[in-house]
User: Fold this.
Amino acid sequence: MRVERLHRFRSILGLLLLILSLDVAVALEPSSTATLVFRSAMIETMDAERPTATAIAIRHDRILAVGTFEKIERHIDKTTKVINLEGRLVVPGLIESHGHFLGLGKFLSELDLMDSESWQDVVSKVASEVEHIDRGVWIIGRGWHQSLWKEKPQPNIEGYPLHDDLSAVTPNNPVLLIHRSGHLCLANKFAMDLAGIDSDTKNPRGGEILRNSMNSPVGVFRETAQSLIQRAYSRYRQDLSPGELDREFKDSIHLAEQECLRFGITSFQDAGVSPATARQFADLIERGRLKIRLWLMLRTSNSVLRSEIPSLLKYREFANHHLTIGGIKQMFDGALGAHGAWLLEPYEDLPSSQGLVVTPIKTIRKTAEIAFEHELQLCTHAIGDRANREMLDLYEEYVRRANGRPLRWRIEHAQHIATSDIPRFGKLGVIASMQANHATSDGPFVPTRLGDRRSQSGAYVWQSLLKSGAVIANGTDTPVEPVDPIACFYSAITRRMKNGHVFHVEQAMDRRQALCSYTLDAAFAAFQEDEKGSLVAGKLADLVVLSRNIMTIDADKVLSAQVDMTVIGGEILYRR
Assistant:
């Protein structure tokens, strides 16, 4: 009996130990243990089923659970890093839907003319730059805009300055100053001489050289005419060694990534890269040298696209969503600020012009065929109402051919749309890839360009587009504008310009619409809504912690909010 009781005791003890071990195994099951937890937060999830939460658990690069701390506490063990946010706001990782990543990095190392208040201010900044460089070295600057200066330069052509003052302070250096829009540039005499430009130089197709009454170039080059100066600059750069070019590229990428992380950008939709640059990005990502997520639009000739796309399709989804080749970029017209946007009616302040066609429609039609064949999104720059109408007509043909397959082709900028064309965005499923800060930057001169009637009915009409059922993806077009999404969010909800005036406030977004345009709708615009854009279990662990709650504070205090943390794939890559 005694032996039987001992065996029974051992059996019971063994069973209890087994049950206890099973409980521990459940508690410490690796697949349910969080590596990082944020608690005591105000979380805007952008998930319709659970709009808000107070805690989020992350396992490696994915979201494990979202809800209350009591709900996710069971995912914590001694290895979990727990951060108390003390009530700060958490939002999904912010997505820059239209920018130029390499361009941002280059801009950060060039002469910044964004805050210039006059032509003389620009000339003075260039003159200061001359003191620090050798003879023959190019001076590259960006960000000037004549319509934002306090006074018109004298003399001027169509409001643009002449090169004479600039050339006087730069007799030994070529100068290229890119307009804030990127659709116009100004060069000094040295640069024009290097480019071989004189009175006999013809306007290239889709561009214009501004001239005085003697037919002499005044230094201003609109749209494709910029290439005349840029080719001269490219020849100069041919003397740089491969090592110098590689260092410059990597430095620019590093600067761009750090700037994006500082502003809470976790994904960046690059509006136009060459196949070679796409491969350089892939190499950096594969070696762990680039951690922001990139979604690329290829931009090159149709012949190169046809030859290169087959080998590039391996990057359709690469390195766990860190690189995606998803679209093809085309340029249809120019910009309003440079009188290059293609309009249905002439410019109010330049009645002789209705803008420019930068790329012929037959060329874009061939690009559309390539995009359709390879199931890539066509992303076309169209700003003027005529350009938007022509693109909608083209897109409609392919929507019919797709026979229900979602294309989500995009119009980049869509800044001025004829009233009758606004509903077509929603009906056709065309993404309106727009930049809220363009409305507040351009607002002071838009009525001058378009007149009050066209400005009110068709310029930056966000609410009208949203009511049509269209999806708006937000961004900054950096380096045209600073990559700061909080400033862009502020523009979206207030439409308040720097001069204090409001640009047609009836078209402003509400805060949830504005945040959605930077998160879930931006992800949708790239066919990535299943992986990012909202804080839901199973999605990529990309999120941003803000110092203030931009969803509730007074609108005039939104600009005081700062990014405290930027998290990509569960890794804190920026901390203020």
Observations:
- The chain has a mean pLDDT of 94.
- The longest helix spans residues 2-27.
